[in-house]
Amino acid sequence: MLRRLSARKTFLIVGLLTMLAGCQSAPPASQDTLYNDLGERHGIARFVKDMLYIVVEDDRIAETFRGVDIASLHRNLTDQICHLANGPCTYNGRSMTEAHAGLGIDETDFNALVEDLILAMEQNQVPVSAQNRLLNRLARLHDQVVRIPEARPTTH
Amino acid sequence: MPFTRFLPWLLVALASAPPAVAEPGSRLWATGGVTTIEGAAGGGLVPMAVLTGYASDREWGGSVALSHAPLDDYTVDVVAGALNWHNRIEISAARQTLDLDTLGAALNQDDLQQDILGAKLRLTGDVLYSPYGQWSLGVQYKHNRTFTVPDAVGARDVRGTDVYLAGTKVFLAGLFGRNVLVNGVVRGTKANQGGLLGFGGDKNDSYDAVLEGSAGVFIDRQWLVGTEYRQKPDNLGFAREEDGYDLFVAWVPERHLAVTAAWVNLGSIAGLDDQQGAYLSLQGSF
Ligand code: HEM
């Protein structure tokens, strides 16, 4: 029983709830200048490098990166972010599920890496709106990174 | 009442938590919300689906908060504490006091008081990363400690239980590159003025479904401005009860601290109309 809902108030609240359900399907903003706002490829390469410096000092996730070829990771991550920002780069690494399969990445790890990325972007004076737009695109990859089981051994 | 003793224990537990536990958790800044006047994580008046503190899926989190709102004829004070296990379950306790600044002498009672023990279960989703946001189910078990006045004005019960479903989503870069917070709640309740005037009444003694909502914009990761709206039942014949709303600014300089300032209007309370005023809340969390 929904009592005492004046039309105006119900409209307001239903509007909020509709936004909650509907915003996801809104088309991405046109006029994409994210690549420029991130400082183009060299700007991206710089904050990715700073992020990796923070990551290897971050007790929550440093262990996961032990033994990884950091130069290659740096190049692939930079290309991928450049590509996600509609920049002129080609990503040559593995798919997200392949790259993160069996690493046992949980929500804590994911949050830790996002935090380290934000700190690195702040160090590099990346504008807040460019940070948010990039995070929005990275957030969509969450389900391809977190808790991805070891790839099934293929029979040859 | 066992839970009237719960809050001090919670505070002791938080204060004596080993330093490793008190290290803030890994969820991003401000994603634990602040502490509502009922102790649950959310805004000021309206809870959210987010769980208090900064615990992510292998961590503990928690918060303590003090809130104060001098309204025209009343003053609201809240002490609250909450714990978060693995960003899955939040347990909260709060004591609310409403000083009867204007009516006190006539009623021969200084204040109305209630205790609220709350639990919130995150059902699914993540406020930042899930396309459809985060969804939680909450209960609030409320016990009025000053039932003489509520009883005299027609309230039926000294205790009541609210149940609510909350959905919350932060749209990253949702508006001009700023992150936008949207939150909606459906609550089943019999509470009069949140429970300060008891539960059920002469006019209506059954559960009402009420809607609550909040919306805000993060100016950056430290500053959130927004608004809240909360419907309330109208169960007592002696005086009409109205909905409440507020405009707020929250400042989260770092994970250990949040400061919320608001202008709040709780409508007519016990026959005194248009109760509005400032609201200030301090929260410490980990
Ligand atoms: C949206 C978030 C993420 C994105 C976009 C991302 C992107 C990438 C990319 C592009 C690579 C290189 C793949 C390749 O070279 O073939 C990679 C590898 C890797 N990522 Fe992520 N990653 C994300 C989250 C995480 C998280 C949360 C962790 C753990 C804390 C993590 C740990 C790793 C590790 C350890 C590797 C190296 C794997 C290997 O070389 O075997 N990643 N990631």
Strand content of chain A: under 5%
Strand segment count of chain B:
14
Tell me the CATH superfamily of chain A: Globins
CATH architecture of chain A: Orthogonal Bundle
Structural class of chain A: mainly alpha
> Hey, roughly how much beta strand do the residues of chain B contain?
over 45%
Number of helices of chain B: 4
Q: Structural class, from helix and strand content of chain B?
A: mainly beta
Q: What can you see in these coordinates?
A:
The complex is a heterodimer of chains A (156) and B (286). Chain A contains seven helices and no strands. Chain A has 156 residues and is mainly α. Chain A has a single domain, classed as Globin-like (Orthogonal Bundle), CATH 1.10.490.10. In chain A, α3 (40-56) crosses α4 (70-84) and α3 crosses α6. Residues 1-5 and 21-30 of chain A have low confidence and may be disordered. Chain B is mainly β and 286 residues long. Chain B has a single domain (3-285), classed as monomeric porin ompg (Porin), CATH 2.40.160.40. Chain B is 8% helix and 49% strand. Chain B has four helices and 14 strands. The two termini of chain B are 29 Å apart. The model of chain B has no long low-confidence stretch (mean pLDDT 94). The chains are: A mainly alpha (156), B mainly beta (286). Chain A binds chain B through residues 1-5, 9-10, 12-14, 16-17, 19-21, 23-24, 29, 60, 106-108, 110-112, 114-115, 118, 127-130, 132-133, 135-136, 139-140, 142, and chain B through 25-28, 56-59, 87, 126, 128-133, 167-169, 171-174, 176-179, 182-184, 204, 206-215, 220-221, 229, 231, 233-234, 243. Protoporphyrin IX containing FE binds at residues 61, 64-65, 68, 72-73, 76-77, 80, 93-94, 99-100, 103, 105, 109-110, 113, 138, 141, 145 of chain A. Protoporphyrin IX containing FE is lined by residues 61, 64-65, 68, 72-73, 76-77, 80, 93-94, 99-100, 103, 105, 109-110, 113, 138, 141, 145 of chain A.
